[in-house]
Amino acid sequence: HAKRQGRDRSTLFDSEIQMTARSRFALESELRETLKTNGLDVFYQPIMDRTGTQLESAEALVRWKHPQRGWLSPIEFLDVARSAGLMYELGACVLKNVCAHWRQAKDQNTPLPTISVNLSAEQVLVPELPELVREICKNQDMPVSALQFEVTEDSIQGDFSGIGRILEQLVEAGAELAIDDFGTGYSSLSRLKTLPFSRIKIDRSFINNLPDDDNDCAITLSIIGLARGLGLSVVAEGVESEAHEAWLFEKGCDYLQGYRYSKPLPYSDFISRYCSR
Ligand code: C2E
Ligand code: MG
Ligand code: MG
Ligand code: MG
What we know:
Residues 24-277 form the EAL domain. This protein is α/β, with parallel strands linked by helices. It is 48% helix and 19% strand. It is globular, with a radius of gyration of 19 Å. One magnesium ion binds at residues 59, 118, 150, 180.
């Protein structure tokens, strides 16, 4: 796994040096403009029950339809947003668009399931975040309990008490909290216990080589056991094959997410495939 991470990192680095300073600057100012009009889009990926047949919830994943470059995925612009100090605004834009979709779906009688929204490290450091969430939901007459939030282990590393308070306020407002990409970051297990998480998402790097890789089997099995022991639910990310699904079902994983079911879909495609009767 260390090797795989190393490779990801160098790929990221290569694409970064390929992107000239000039085009990076252009992308930054275009992103700034786009955020002014909430111009980013959100795609939805289904999260299925343990049998892989029933929709449980959906993860909202940001996309950018760039006028010249076409659809951009987060890996192509989150770095730019981060270094430009735009992550809080980007997160607000995603939330506004998710809540507008939720309302539209409700009004059209094709209600969305619980939506899981990724929060950045930058967002969970801002004391006003819970108020922002409440306000954006209120504007759409939407209960905060229709949302779930995902934070990575690395996002909850520093300033423990401040972040803890912000996360608790989100939970008090009604949202559930999941720890994302579990097993790849640098947090301690005690934070799972002390922060108000109700769900663990197993990183897809552990799921990839199931059931052939003994180490990945052992790690995944122990994360499922950890979740069970702590009374948390557990989701496997990156479920791509029938073999993944069968193994995870047998080991008692609660929910499944991955290309086996669907790639992230534009709102209207998601609605017609999963929310229409
Ligand atoms: P993540 O939160 O772990 O999201 C899951 C990523 O895995 C998504 O990539 C999804 O398309 C991809 N994925 C899902 N199933 C499979 C599969 O079976 N196989 C493979 N190979 N990949 C799969 P995406 O949409 O490119 O997002 C990448 C990351 O960008 C996310 O990882 C998340 O960390 C970040 N991100 C996405 N949207 C947002 C957002 O609105 N706010 C913030 N702060 N971060 C976001
Ligand atoms: Mg996520
Ligand atoms: Mg994840
Ligand atoms: Mg991941």
